[in-house]
Structures are given as C-alpha cells and as structure tokens.
Amino acid sequence: MSSIVEELQRGALNRNTSVSDLLRMAKVISVKLDLPDLANWVNRELNGYGMTEVPAYRLIHGQVKGKNPFHGWQPVLFHDEEIEKSFTNQPIGQPLGEIEHMLSQARNGPGELMIPLSGQAATLLMNATGMTLPFAVIIGSGTAWGILDAVRTALLDWSLKLEQVGIKGEGLSFTKEEREKAHEGQSTYHIGNIGTFTGNLGANLGTVTATSQQASSDEVLKFIEKVRSNVETLNVSGKEITRLDAALDDLKYEMKQPSRDQNKVQQAVSSIRSVAENAAGSLVATGILFELAKLFS
Predict the structure, then answer these.
(1) Residue 139 · residue 112 · CB < 8 Å
(2) Are residues 10 and 148 in the same domain?
(3) Residue 229 domain-assigned?
(4) Angle made by CA atoms 135, 138, 141, in degrees to the nearest 5
C-alpha cells in the first residue's frame, strides 16, 4: 500500500498537481499525527488569512491603480517614497485556491493580477485623492506563482523530514510509534517572517508558531522622525501643528521609557491620528494614518 507522505512528495514534484490538493493532503497528515499548529497553517492557506498576519512569501510589491470610469485603470502617483511603499507593499491573504484560479484566468491575458486594497487602505486613498474609485494593487503573474512555489517547497521539505525520521504512514494510517516520533523532531523550517510574524514549520516536525508583539521602540521612533520631516506638507492650521508636535514629543518620551504608560501612548496616538484626519486631501496624512494602523492596530 502506498505511503501518504510519499504521495505528498510525488505531488509536490509534479507541477500538474495543484497546491490546494497538496495542502489538503498535508491537512490529513497533520491531523493524524496530531500537529494542530501545522493544520492551522494549512487551514489559513486554504481558507485565507483574514485579519491574521501573513508569512513573508505572501507580502508582495505591485503598482497601485484606480479605476477611472472613462479611462480604465490608471496609476496612482505618490510624491513620497515611504508612503508609496505603504500601499504598494501589500499582504496577500486570499485563499490559495483563489490565487490559483486568478492565475488560470490570467494565462491568456496580459499576465497581470488585480489584488483589491483593504477597505481601510482604499478609504484612505479616496480621502486623499477626493475621488470615490475602486483601488487595487496590480502585480505580475510571476509574483503570484512565487506564493504557490513557496508553499509547494515548504510542503516538500516537511514531507522529506518526516521520511528521514521514519514517518511515512501506510495508506492513510500512522502507527503509534510514528505519531510519537512526530513530536520529537528538532529541525525547523521557516515559512517566512513579516513584521513581528514568525512562522516555523517543524519545531516539532511541522509546528507552525506565530508571535505578534507591539511595535518596537525603534519602529515608532523612525515613524516619529518621518512625520516630523513631512509636517510642513500637512494642510492644517498652526494650532494643529503645535498639537501634533506635542503628541509626537509625548510618544517619543514614552517609547524611551523602560516601561511604557499605555494610556499616555494611546492619548498621543489619538492626537496624531486626529490631526492627520483633519488634513483632508493630503497623501502625507494618508501615509501617517496607514502607518499608525500598522504600528498600533
């Protein structure tokens, strides 16, 4: 009788086998070996990441465009490189099967895929441009293929490690000894890291762990300096600029303390957000709001 682990290997080496099918095979293995963290990663790949941070291989770079009703999709021009990166570097959280479907539809087209911006990002762009248009990130199909390849390779590496330690399974079954071995492995497979996300395939032969921490002091201090360098471009009154400066000072002070006063941090963040929201039509203000959402979700 064939081994399901070997079937997974054969499928990973066969380009005609969809990655979605490989993931479903991996789900069977992970559940039967009692590896809930790996099963959780597989479920996210199959069903989408939702509000969960994505692994590094799902962070893509594209071009932001808005759909003009008369001229079709037109590029959005940014005047600040850092703000542009905030929008053009996007996490792709769609179910993997959806990505496969988009690629199949693009085979006879221009070789581009349209990834809708999140509701928050789209709203910020609408406010900044004053135009109620659909916005999306346009990526090349090769970028999407890279996501599929990353998952395919991770599954192949994991299945090879299972075989190396003597876990192959017979049909769809594993012995008690094999199930015990599945929790003794020490090899680690990194599925990527983005921001504070860390994923490991295999702390225990396939465990996927994720840690989400608060923004580091260095990240916040860089954000503060970025805001200060662009404050003159904000379309707000002198009183609002003074308010913004005070909030930035308060936030900077708290970031340098051994123990942050979260109430004061929140007050400073709220003031910064309020000033940015009052700077109607400013792409810099849009970038500030976008960065605040990432640093203090």
Answers:
(1) yes
(2) yes
(3) yes
(4) 150
